[in-house]
Amino acid sequence: MQQHGSPEPAEPIEKAGIAWENVVFIVLTVLLGAWVVGSVVGLQVVMWFIEQQLIIGYNQPLPGGAFPVVGFAVIVLVALPSAFIGMLARRFAPDAAALPVATRAWTLAAVLGGVLTWARSVPTLNNERYLLTLAIVAAGLALFQRGLRWLRAWLRARREGPAEAVGTSADASPAEAERSASLEEAPPVAVGPSRLAGALAGVIVLLPWLVLGALGGLTETLLAAAAAGAVGWLATGVLDQRFFGAFAAGRAMALGLGGLVAGVALVPYASGIGASGIQLGLMLILPPLGFAAAALVVRAWPALSAGGTGWLIGVAAFGPLAFVDPEEASLLLGMRDVLFWAGLAALAGVVVAAAVGTAYSLMFVPGRAWRRPTAAITAGVVAVVAAGAYAVGQPGLHGERLFVILKEQADLTGIAQVADRAARLDSTYRRLVATAERTQAPLRRKLDSWHLDYTPYYLVNAISVAGGPLVREWRAGRDDVDRVLLEQDLRPLPAAAPAARGSAAAPGATPPWNIRMIGADKVWQELGITGAGITVGNSDSGVDGAHPALAAGFRGGDDSWYDPWNHTTTPTDNNGHGTHTTGTAVGRDNIGVAPGATWMGCVNLDRNLGSPAEYLNCLQFMLAPFPAGGDAWRDGRPERAPQVLTNSWGCPWVEGCDAKVLAPATAAFRAAGVFFVSAAGNNGAAGCGSIKDPPAIYADVLTVGAVDGRRSLAGFSSLGPTPADLPKPDVLAPGVDVLSAYPGDTWELANGTSMATPHVAGVVALMWSAQPKLVGDIDTTTKILRGTATRAEGPTKVGGRSDNCGADVYLFGSGIVDAYAAVKAAQALG
Predict the structure, then answer these.
(1) Which of 45, 56, 66, 643 stands 20 to 30 A from 99 (CA)?
(2) What distance in Å separates the CA atoms of residue 367 and residue 381, rounded to the nearest whole number?
(3) Which pLDDT tens digit goes with each residue over 778-828?
(4) What is the distance between the alpha carbons of residues 495 and 416, in angstroms, rounded to a whole number?
């Protein structure tokens, strides 16, 4: 018999060994938590940045197969090390019960997040399909998880008997078993208020999104709610009773350590939620909610219900899922567009989530009931605040539209042979309108009966219609419909971006290098030709009509300016792009190629993401200008159409365009005798075949690439051939460090084929001013431009290829335009 106060020699040695092992595994778990957060955040940010670079620089999406790889990487980076350290902790530190539970939560969260990432393989343009896929996958995983848990409990009950199986796990440590037993002995409390508290906390975290974001369409919003509910339900399988039970040693431990571990688990879990880019916001706002989740469980102590956690995470996740369009959360639109406001909402959500967790930790005392009057008043206040936030934000639904293209397009045969320019333009306009009115009538009657909003177009026989997937399927099945494209419709912003201002020095008395390279200054000085009598139309971000280099050149009248974006009544430009391109074409002060020509303008791209309908709004105005407030179908004045169009834009896949969508429009301009100049694009990094977007790919337009001051092909300039194997670009022009006008009486240097394109439009203006008989003669003008172009310098090996894309013409076209030689050739026609 052992004497009192004489311990066995082995006992202190065993305890000391366990204590040291606990310390080691605590350190390992802390390091593991840092690894979980750092590796997942780093992986997601890098992959999103790579995707953005592919879209901007290469004009292509991240391959859908990349997302399963990303999901698998999350599992490998997080789940495997977490499971391994948890296994070791359970074996060598059984008294530290919280450690294996923490690593189990991180393992499960990584597996679920990795699997959910697979849903991102659905193309970004179809957010409704993605949200539906996410909802189905998350709900399926939640059902599987619960079914597996029920099966384990049933098998354990059969093996051990009901008494032994209740509340304990077959592989539970002694410490876990002791806690579970004590919890089972405690009287249960109602957990309904916990769910209400979780939902209210989620709504509070949602407030920044209500103010700064904007909802999509009805179907998209409902699917976002379904997806958010599913991921919230699935999260309760990670932060479940067993998880919180491991931190039941005390209230401070549950709120502090439990909240921290839960927050770490929500990082890999959030990485799988939302289309590409949306997950970054969720990875910011969900982890701080770990503390609020812990507080909710403390409030429901000792019943330990995770139901409130599901409501908390689900409602909070609804914000990024519903109030941000993933294709708009892109660097394409610039840093002061959706990315800025979504980032601001996410950062505000972090602060709000932390505040909610702190408040709940202070408010909720174990075992104390949340009285119904208090709960009702709190819910009412939160609801009123949320409604007010939504009202001052961007209320209403702002979903995508559908672009319905009819099978029959106008037959313009014979119009090009009409000698009189005014008659030729009028015939083109009348035939286009007549065809569209006749063929659209049945579809319009049906749309009217369904009370669907729509906008008809005649330049391309098409209708832009509001509607979701079901409407799309119905319209696509009609005999008179050729195809239905998804039309991007940007959601509104809380505030417009600040107006752009240039930072370059004003031009001097000598024309800049680009004007001298193409010989435009020699045309003015030696030939006395400045473009007088010709009007150049520019569809772009707008034009600062008050700029000193542009004010005198505005054609004027009530049909020379149209702004379908912001409905301004005088030429305005907040972006700067359109002012710059207009200045290069017709600007005074030595910056414009044809300073004597006049200009008219239209806003087709106020923010840098358009759609076929947005482009057609301006193209129809250019074919048949109409007065402010007029109707394009009834009030068009084709005789007032500009002679030349400069188009420094393209319609890529991300805007919902396909290769054929604008072909009827450019064919109509050619038939009408309007010279259509288009930018080749800035995707030269993608190598050969990078000219692949309308309108640059069409034979009816003159496609322009860019060179620098050394006459070398610019590295960004897109290359041929086109998808139809056309030899593009047609010609080259200066497109690097081009000085031109910018809003606010400023000046700017800019790069791009956007800058090269107006040079060529200006040269055509000079040619047609010098030789009026050329006006409307597209073929002869093009032949002169090609025949007088000069050779460009530069590499004949592109993108690592050993050849020149098959022929030099796919790189250089006919060469750099020569304004002086072209005008001389035009004059020689007599």
Answers:
(1) 45
(2) 25
(3) 999 999 999 999 999 765 444 444 467 889 999 999 999 999 999 999 999
(4) 47
